[in-house]
Specification:
20% strand; nine-stranded mixed β-sheet; Rossmann fold; alpha/beta; six-stranded parallel β-sheet; 480 residues
Length: 480
């Protein structure tokens, strides 16, 4: 089977979790199938990129018509861990910012939409092969998938990694000769709903967790009942591996002490959060409020733990949240450290490998990778009972003998604060045996149930129209 995938992110181009998901899925699929990936070059070709296993080679040149202008496109091919990647290069598609500014992003999406069918046509002529499916990842590539299906009769799989409810004006589509895509069923005034269009025109619609499918069922996915399912993401547990830590030979407590010293803090019970600082999805305001409630003695039992509590926040984003994090750091300098930056995966791995608990207070989370990465590294997650977090963490109270973490209601700082106090008390009361068992079970749970080989197996069933539509998760059961 020849599987083609279209995406705006693939390692080393990473803005969010999409890059990790598409890259890892392609590598897993390539173990049994042929895989080719289509992506705008995003300026990658301007400098040497060590993450590829071959140097980029020019594959073809052709031209596309955008409005009344002819635009040249050059396609390069490169290999990465068994996956053939086609990078689309042009004046527009080489812009280094993936999604910004908006005008440039829309132009890039239009050029990519027109270039993907052009490349498939050339592959047909040069190699006499045609993909069996085109797998579209998120709304940026929906129009490309629709044209490929229309002109080459290739089945179109659409995966929504996160519903964005994006719209584009009919005027914009008409201006760039894409009026053939305008379907009056998905017009909202003069605006065109891209995800609903994709859901209608695709052959199969998937999302990345069972809970997220159900959370958004009434508002979106039910419209496409009968061709809608889910496939859990996985994680690269070979990278998120405690054996690769800088001080892997030391006990966890010793690693924690060293890491806290590096950040100017005395040893204590370490809670860790990593990711984008935003209010809408990630619930960082909830986290900061919960921490402040504990430190102000507003939570039962907090007087026992607040002296030992340490919080490290790693990430950047919303200016208000950055300022709030710095305010709390100034107010509680012996308990909190804010690192307003994005650090590399290797550095993040060191934090997972030292922290006692990882906080994931998302308001919604289609799947989420942080909880899986944390569990792989023996860092016990405390997360919101939403989306993929709910599917992947086995709660201490729901599954006392199989637990891998704690789940709390979303948008509820008091509940999060109580869970933090509860877990900190377990550490103080020398219940490390129980916590150590949770750490071991967490890694085992991820490796068994949420690996990319399992995701690839289920996607192949989707491609072949053999996937079940609804399949609830049961602890330690085979998900597929």
């Amino acid at each position: 089977m020849l599987i083609s995938m279209a995406t705006f992110e693939h390692l080393p181009v990473r803005v969010g979790g999409l890059a990790e998901a598409v890259t890892s899925l392609g590598e897993a699929l390539s173990k049994s199938e042929e895989v080719m990936v289509f992506m705008p070059a995003h300026g990658l070709l301007r400098e040497e990129e060590e993450s590829f296993s071959s140097k980029p080679e020019k594959y073809c040149d052709f031209r596309i018509m955008v409005g009344d202008r002819i635009s040249p496109v050059t396609v390069y091919q490169v290999w990465r861990k068994g996956v053939r990647i086609f990078l689309f290069s042009s004046e527009v598609m080489d812009h280094p910012q993936v999604y910004q500014p908006r005008d440039m992003f829309v132009a890039k999406m239009v050029h990519f939409t027109k270039a993907v069918p052009g490349l498939i046509n050339i592959i047909l002529k040069k190699e006499n092969i045609k993909p069996d499916v085109i797998h579209i990842n998120d709304w940026h590539c929906v129009f490309a998938g629709s044209l490929v299906k229309k002109y080459f009769k290739i089945p179109f799989i659409f995966t929504i990694h996160r519903l964005c409810r994006e719209r584009i004006s009919v005027h914009e589509l008409n201006e760039v000769n894409l009026s053939e895509l305008v379907d009056p069923r998905y017009l909202e005034g003069d605006m065109f709903n891209i995800e609903k269009f994709g859901g209608h025109h695709c052959d199969h619609l998937t999302t990345v967790s069972y809970s997220y499918l159900n959370e958004e069922w009434r508002t979106f996915f039910s419209t496409f009942e009968g061709k809608t399912t889910y496939v859990w993401n996985g994680t690269d547990y070979t990278f998120w591996n405690p054996d690769f830590l800088k001080h892997a030979q030391l006990p966890r407590k010793e690693r924690r002490k060293l890491l806290l010293e590096e950040n100017g803090l005395e040893d204590g019970i370490l809670f860790f959060n990593v990711g984008r600082l935003d209010v809408e999805q990630k619930g960082i305001d909830i986290l900061l409020k919960a921490f402040e409630m504990i430190m102000n003695g507003e939570v039962p039992g907090s007087e026992r733990v607040r002296k030992e509590l340490r919080l490290i926040l790693l990430g950047s984003g919303d200016q208000y949240l950055e300022n709030e994090a710095r305010r709390l750091e100034r107010q509680f300098p012996y308990n909190m450290k804010s690192i307003i930056a994005y650090l590399g995966r290797e550095t993040t791995r060191e934090y997972y490998g030292a922290a006692d608990f990882c906080l994931i207070p998302s308001n919604f989370e289609p799947f989420g990778l942080v909880q899986l990465e944390a569990m792989c590294m023996g860092c016990i997650p405390i997360g919101s009972r939403v989306g993929g977090i709910n599917d992947t963490i086995l709660d201490l109270h729901d599954f006392p003998e199989e637990s891998t973490g704690r789940l709390v209601p979303p948008r509820n700082p008091a509940s999060l604060a109580r869970a933090m106090v509860e877990m900190a008390q377990m550490s103080l009361e020398d219940q490390e045996g129980q916590l150590d068992r949770m750490r071991r079970r967490g890694r085992e749970h991820v490796i068994k149930n949420f690996n990319w080989d399992k995701a690839a197996e289920r996607y192949i069933r989707v491609y072949k129209n053999m996937a079940t539509i609804k399949l609830p998760f049961v602890s330690y059961a085979e998900p597929y």
